[in-house]
Write a structure and sequence with these properties.
293 residues, six-stranded antiparallel beta sheet, five-stranded antiparallel beta sheet, 17 strands
Length: 293
């Protein structure tokens, strides 16, 4: 498999977080719109045993997240807990070399997320009132103005680099996530850079929420992540809600008994939706780091 990185530059606010499992779902819709449903179905045919695509979260440009490890294993000063919590970004080389105590803050990484709440009110277009009783019932939605983000794509030979570029181009024109129809989630992206990870190890860091149960792991450090998913596009009009999924969040550290050679971990998730063909990315790209004894 080949690992690529691109940097997206937002053209509007985003109403949905750039998590790898969500991006994968949006990429599947973009594949369908770009190449047709038959192409998508062929790519997903063996997804449960051999993923054609694994997508990372969106990270501060030039950085990756600090691993979810105890401070003692991060070689941090235990007397500086508040500062340690703010130091969240490392370069790829620092992660591979295990230099976790060199993590920096959002400010130093040039990473900004400004979240604003937009107050709205639902309208019944049959009665032109706010609800059945005609009372005012406002609600708020959050959206974020973000700086450029790096996204990593791990692709198999079934999915060419050119197809990957075309798919992301379609997604950039569709808009990512919630409220794309009113201008949210639009972006441009840079040329794809192929990333070579020659280092082998028995210890890795994940780049998206993933399923780590049943993966022959010796030890794992992670924070739980619950995905309350919803369908998009035409599937959003009939029972859009999915069952909650519990995963290990991005930045999890997994330790194997011996050197591990696959560039990803996890599995496909099915059975969480009333739409039987629905599949969720439970895979994560792995970045090797120094071994934890």
């Amino acid at each position: 498999m080949r690992l690529y990185k691109t940097t997206i530059t937002p053209l509007s606010n985003f109403a949905t977080s750039l998590k790898g499992d969500t991006i994968f779902g949006q990429m599947c819709w973009a594949i369908r719109y770009t190449f047709g449903n038959e192409k998508l179905e062929s790519l997903l045919e063996n997804y449960e045993t051999a993923p054609f695509l694994v997508v990372s979260d969106g990270f501060a440009s030039g950085y990756l997240p600090k691993p979810s490890l105890p401070s003692s294993l991060l070689d941090e000063d235990s007397d500086k807990k508040k500062e340690n919590r703010k130091n969240i970004w490392l370069t790829l080389s620092q992660i591979q070399n295990g230099e976790f105590n060199k993590a920096i803050t959002d400010e130093k990484a040039g990473n900004q997320t400004k979240t604003v709440a937009t107050v709205k009110n639902s309208l019944n277009y049959k009665t032109f009132t706010t609800d059945d009783s005609g009372t005012f019932a406002p609600y708020s939605e959050n959206e974020s103005a973000i700086t450029p983000r790096d996204i990593y794509f791990l692709v198999s030979d079934l999915f060419s680099t050119n197809e990957l570029i075309q798919t992301l181009q379609t997604l950039s024109l569709m808009g990512f996530g919630k409220n794309a129809s009113i201008g949210k989630g639009f972006f441009t992206f840079s040329d794809f850079e192929e990333i070579k990870l020659a280092q082998t190890s028995n210890t890795f860091i994940t780049l998206s929420p993933s399923v780590i149960q049943g993966q022959s792991i010796k030890q794992a450090y992670y924070e739980p992540f619950t995905r309350f998913g919803k369908h998009g596009a035409e599937l959003a009009h009939k029972n859009p809600f999915k069952k909650p999924i519990l995963m290990a969040n991005s930045g999890a550290v997994v330790v194997f008994e011996e050197a591990y050679t696959k560039p990803y971990i996890g599995k496909a998730i099915k059975g969480h939706s009333s739409h039987q063909d629905t599949v969720h990315q439970g895979y994560a790209i792995l970045i090797p780091t120094k071994e934890i004894n």
